[in-house]
Each structure stands twice: as C-alpha cells, then as structure tokens.
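As promised in the previous annual report, we have extended the structural survey to additional targets. Below is the entry for WD40 repeat-like protein.
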Amino acid sequence: MSVAYLLAHEPTNPHTDVVAGVRWTPQSTVSISADGSIRQWSPNPGSTYHMNGSLTHPLGLVSLSSSPDGKHMLWNSVEGVTSLGHMTDEGIAVQCRLSAPGTKGDSPAWSVSLHPAGEQYASTGASGNITLRSAKAEDFGAVLSALQPRSQTFGLCCAYSPDGNRVAMTAENGEIFIFDSVRGSLVSTFTSHVMPVRTLSWTPDSNSFLSASDDTHVVLHDVRSPGGVVASMLGHSSWVLSTDWSSGGYLALSGSLDKSIKIWDMRSQVALSTILDNSGVWAVSWNPDGASGFVTGGEDGSVKWWRSAGTGTGNTG
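The corresponding structure token record, generated without further manual editing, is:
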C-alpha cells in the first residue's frame, strides 16, 4: 500500500535561512528559523496560508514547542534565550523571556519543551541534564529541578510525553534518557543509535516514541517493554532531523538532510511514501486534525504545506 501527498501551498515570502522548527496547531502554523525569526501563518480559504505575524531575534532560533491547543509557543535561540509567546488573531505576543543563564552548572538551553499543562517547561543543552523550569509569568525560567542522566553528554532534544508524566532527552552520543517528570527519577536509558539523536516524538497515548539520528535510522520504542526497541527503520541516506506522529497514532513523518520526507505506517513499520523535496528537510509537523496533510520546513528557508492526494486542490502561489 502507498499513500500519496501533494504540495498544497508554498508562500512566496520564505525564511532567509534554515527552518529549524514548525508546528501545525488548531489555531495556525508557526515556524522558526536560523534567520532569527518566528512566524505565524494563518489559513486562507482554499488551503493557502498567509503570514499573520513575525518577530525577530538577533541570532538564530533552534527549538520550538507548543501547548496542546496551539495558543502558546515556547522557543529558544542558539545562545539560549528562551521565550514564551501567545498566539493571537493579530500575531505573536511575547509573554515572558529568559536570557541565557550564565551561572555555574546552569548552562544555556539548546532544546526546550513546554509541559502540556503549561505551568513548567524542560530544557537541555551543554549541561547534559534536563532542567525543569517555571513557565509562570511571575517567575518564568526559575529552576524547579534538574534531572541527571548517568552519562554526561550534550542534550540535543527534550520532549514531554503528551500526558506530561515523562520527559525524554536525546544526546550527542546517541543515548536516549526517559525520566519520570513527577518523581524526577531516571526510568529508562536506550542505546539504539550510534550517532547524535536530534529528534524525538511521542505517540498520542504516551506509551511509545520515535527517535531519529545522524545514523539515518528511525527507531520505534515502547517505554512499557523491558527491551524498549520495537523496530529500527531504514530508508533515509543522511541525517534524520525531524519526526512527528499523526493524531491517530498510526502514521509518522520523518524529514532528512537527504531532501526526503517519509510517511511511515507504524503498525507495519514500513514507509508508505517518500517525497523528494528541493533541499534538506529540517522540520515536519502533521495537521492536528489527522493525516490529511502536514507542513515541512526546509534548509532553503521554505515552509510548505502538503495534502493527501484525495483532499483539496494544490496551490503553490
């Protein structure tokens, strides 16, 4: 079985550098870029999108996380400045900002993840830890606790499970650490990759997750299983930089420097479709309504919306 997706829309005003993150939410689509900008894209009639708001930081943005309803976004810059914003009909309103920490043992963040409840967020980076911080306006960024893995390595990605009970960290040395975010205890360590792991995405039920690495493997894990690894999927020929699960939990996306997007059937762990793009694919995100479409962010600065071949009409204007 194969599933076809077609390019539905590509705006004529792309970012001017790599798109490091995208989120398609019930409200809008948000993208961040190494050009320092965060943009909000709002839907038009006819499956097209227009830029509804944009903010610019002096340096590149590298990490993006959203609340489940898409009304709040958390993003981080290359030097570790973390911002929390509210998505409005008029654009993006910054609510809180934490300048890069500089105290001993409190390294600047590289990756950030907003807790589903919205009252705290996780960060990781050169410290090799997950730091849990307050996301409340009155003490934004205040350290709540630090979760320490058994080995010291640069944290490339952190991600809360959808139920908020677990938080994951992927590392430069290929390891993945799963913590109980309530008790602060290390639950599992996975060594299913041999090169840096740059992306991790949880299933909607919080029981499994997908990781991908510079080793070109996309790996399915089950946190309830003693071994953990369910399948290691091959197909990409270069670094895999982004993954995402559909809201139904059966389909997954992966984007790679090999300029391809793969749609995976996670029941059979096979690729249903491969789309070749014009540049490396750094970011992917499903339509929250299901598997009817997804959005990608490219090395060339492009943001593109894709639709299932059975829905809508294509538009690249």
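The longest strand covers residues 48-56. The domain at 16-230 is CATH 2.130.10.10 (Methylamine Dehydrogenase; Chain H). These points will be discussed at the next consortium meeting with the crystallography subgroup.
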